[in-house]
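Priority: medium. Attachment 1 of 2:
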């Protein structure tokens, strides 16, 4: 039989191993079955229970930091939809380990994309109906407008077309470089290849990011501050593949800020293979994953 000095209130407070012995014994004390651990817990004050809780309360310092740096509701500030499918000429051979890995990844992302697009359609049904074909075309036009605004150094237009993080990443490009850019033709029709929804603080507050694949012919030349060509050729068009990430806050009330460009993703090409007809570096300096 355990000694009485191990019982609460009758001696020193036992250690964790001794408490396990007491709890396992379920000794009869005072004519009824009691758990000494629970009886000691009831004797603790409210402040001590909070102090030893698994999830402590927010401290005053943390609450002040949160008030000084609140979470913005206009942009995520990062790229969450970071998947771009492999190009046809860059896919792994059939029935190899790399091929199985690519197929598994593509299937997982397609299931998530179907679910995310369903949520986007439901949220925007009354405000701005989401149709993937029309949305992809508008994303292409928005990228054209963004490159034109970057060429003309129109900061006001850039703030309307890009998220805050994307505008900040283009700050040096706008101030210290000159662009000559022209859209020639569309090679393949734009299409939606991936989508993600991100809940913020509650399941009723969603952000959405949609990846659109664009394949076009362009002419772009980048000059530095002294007029030297950094990239491109003034008379040589390039066939460019862009994976543009569009972002929007799915508000239940009001129209919000609409779809904006959050960044771009590089094409999925193995390092051993070169891109024969497409520039391996997308133009501009938008955020990439």
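Attachment 2 of 2:
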């Amino acid at each position: 039989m355990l000694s009485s000095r191990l019982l609460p209130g009758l001696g020193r407070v036992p250690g964790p191993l001794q408490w396990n012995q007491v709890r396992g014994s379920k000794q009869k004390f005072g004519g009824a079955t009691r758990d000494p651990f629970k009886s000691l817990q009831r004797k603790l004050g409210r402040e001590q229970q909070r102090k030893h809780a698994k999830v402590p309360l927010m401290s005053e310092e943390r609450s002040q930091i949160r008030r000084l740096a609140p979470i913005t509701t206009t942009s995520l500030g990062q790229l969450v939809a970071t998947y771009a499918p492999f190009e046809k000429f860059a896919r792994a051979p059939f029935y190899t380990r790399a091929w199985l890995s690519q197929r598994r990844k593509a299937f997982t992302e397609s299931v998530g994309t179907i679910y995310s697009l369903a949520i986007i359609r439901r949220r925007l049904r009354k405000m701005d109906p989401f149709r993937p074909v029309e949305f992809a075309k508008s994303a292409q036009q928005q990228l054209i407008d963004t490159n034109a605004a970057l060429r003309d150094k129109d900061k006001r237009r850039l703030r309307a077309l890009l998220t805050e993080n994307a505008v900040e990443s283009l700050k040096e490009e706008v101030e210290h470089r000159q662009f000559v850019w022209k859209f020639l033709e569309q090679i393949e029709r734009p299409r939606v290849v991936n989508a993600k929804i991100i809940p913020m603080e509650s399941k009723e507050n969603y952000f959405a990011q949609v990846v659109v694949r664009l394949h076009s012919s362009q002419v772009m030349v980048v000059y530095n501050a002294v007029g030297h060509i950094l990239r491109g050729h003034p008379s040589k068009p390039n066939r460019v593949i862009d994976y543009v990430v569009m972002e929007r806050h799915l508000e239940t009330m009001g129209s919000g800020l609409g779809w904006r460009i959050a960044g771009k993703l590089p094409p999925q090409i193995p390092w051993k293979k070169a891109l024969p007809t497409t520039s391996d570096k997308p133009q501009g300096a938008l955020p990439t994953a």
